[in-house]
Amino acid sequence: MSETGARGNAVVIEDDADIRFLLEVTLGQAGFEVTSAPNGQAGVDAVRELQPVITTLDISLPDFDGFEVARRIRAFSDTYILMLTGRADEIDTLLGLEAGADDYVTKPFRPREIRARIEALLRRPRTVAGEAPPAAAAAALPAAPPAAAEATQDDDALLVHGDLRLDRDARLVELGGTPLELTRSEFDILTALLSNPRRVLSKSQLAGVLWSEGYDTGLEATDADRRSVEVHVANLRRKLGEDATSPRYVETVRGVGYRLALSAR
After folding, report:
1. Residue 173 forms beta bridges with which residues?
2. pLDDT digits (tens, 9 = 90+) for 81-134
3. 232, 224 in Cβ contact below 8 A?
4. Edge-to-edge strand list for the sheet holding 103-106
5. What separation in angstroms does the CA of 165 have from each of 43, 123, 134, 151, 188?
6. Bridge partners (DSSP) listed for residue 165
7. Domains and CATH numbers, the chain
8. Strand duo 54-58 + 9-13: pairing
9. Which site from 88, 121, 183, 227 is most exposed, i.e. has the minimal number of CB atoms within 10 Å?
10. DSSP 247
11. What is the C-alpha to C-alpha distance for residues 265 and 64, in angstroms, rounded to an integer?
């Protein structure tokens, strides 16, 4: 099924015909030209051909699962991937985000929720932090400054915390001079923490960051939003090589949220 739209292509990868139809209608009403696929291989082929702005992806597919589909898509496309799952287990969410999904929604869902998630994704930059920049751009990056005891800001774009450097404009992160490959969400969370070195950010506030609405959105974050933040932070810590018992970068403030560690030892 395809619906004429002005916002570009969207691909729906879903084997359940009823859910597939619902997603086609929802995305069509949001202004996309929608193409659907009933299995993983057809979905990968559609994304490769159409290079869609947004892709919805079910975890349970008849040929191979959504995690593998996401990995294959990420090898050649920066389409926003919204993963749909009937399983709310944190491990499934973790696997989906690690595979390259940008966000997830648990079934059953409401069309309005899908629309809201998609609109939030579209407000975020499509460049993924950690992607290799062109040689000229890489050569233009400023030299690493001496390690700092706490977060400092060299200019409007560069944030530094010990051996961790983040360039907001280039959306690049380096740890000890080595580039880190972060997802959009991990990059945005890390940026928020580095930009507020002495402030505790709640999970709801960080959910607002992922919605690209700043910290105080006036909107109520759901349990799913907060779980998503927890998973993104867990992935970020793993990539930073964090020891949860002695964090150098991201500290948990129990019952509240997260803050930048006071020092990068």
Report:
1. 166
2. 998 887 655 566 667 777 888 888 888 888 888 998 888 888 776 554 434 333
3. no
4. 33-37, 9-13, 54-58, 80-85, 103-106
5. 37, 24, 19, 10, 14
6. 160, 174
7. 9-122 (3.40.50.2300), 135-260 (1.10.10.10)
8. parallel
9. 88
10. -
11. 43
* Residue 159, phi then psi, degrees to nearest 5: -120, 135
Compute the residue count for the chain. 265
**Six token digits for residue 19:** 């859910």
Q: Cα separations (Å) of 199 from 93, 170, 178, 185?
A: 27, 25, 27, 19
Q: What value does the mean pLDDT of the chain take? A: 80
Residues near 260 by beta carbon (within 8 Å), at least 6 away in sequence: 150, 151, 161, 193, 194, 196, 197, 198, 249, 250, 251
DSSP per residue, 30-91 = TT-EEEEESSHHHHHHHHHHH--SEEEEES--SSS-HHHHHHHHHTT---EEEEEES---HH
13 touches 58 (CB < 8 A) = yes
Sole residue written with tokens 């929608």: 34
Print burial letters for 116-129: b (CB count within 10 Å at least 16), e (below 16): ebbebbeebeeebb
Q: Could you tell me the pTM of the whole model?
A: 0.58
- 176 to 2, 139, 150, 173, 214: CA distances (angstroms): 48, 17, 15, 10, 29
